[in-house]
Amino acid sequence: MSVTQVAEMFDCSDSTVMSLIHRKELPAVRVGRRCYRILRPHAVAHLASRLTVEPGLTPH
């Protein structure tokens, strides 16, 4: 699962997902220069409440 896919799941920005990766709250491996692959997509589910949702958007 890619950063963009996770961002779309929760209607947040890619940068929000990237900040979770950088804070080690989301397990991911680097697969390119700026590309990450999320290791355990199910781990994203309990991070949903921690994602900061952008104004005007609602989480799925």
Automatic annotation (TrEMBL):
Signal peptide: none annotated. Residues 1-40 form the Helix-turn-helix domain. Pfam families: HTH_17. InterPro entries: HTH_17 (IPR041657), SinI_DNA-bd (IPR010093). Keywords: DNA-binding. The keyword DNA-binding applies. GO terms for molecular function: DNA binding. This is DNA-binding protein. It comes from Bailinhaonella thermotolerans.
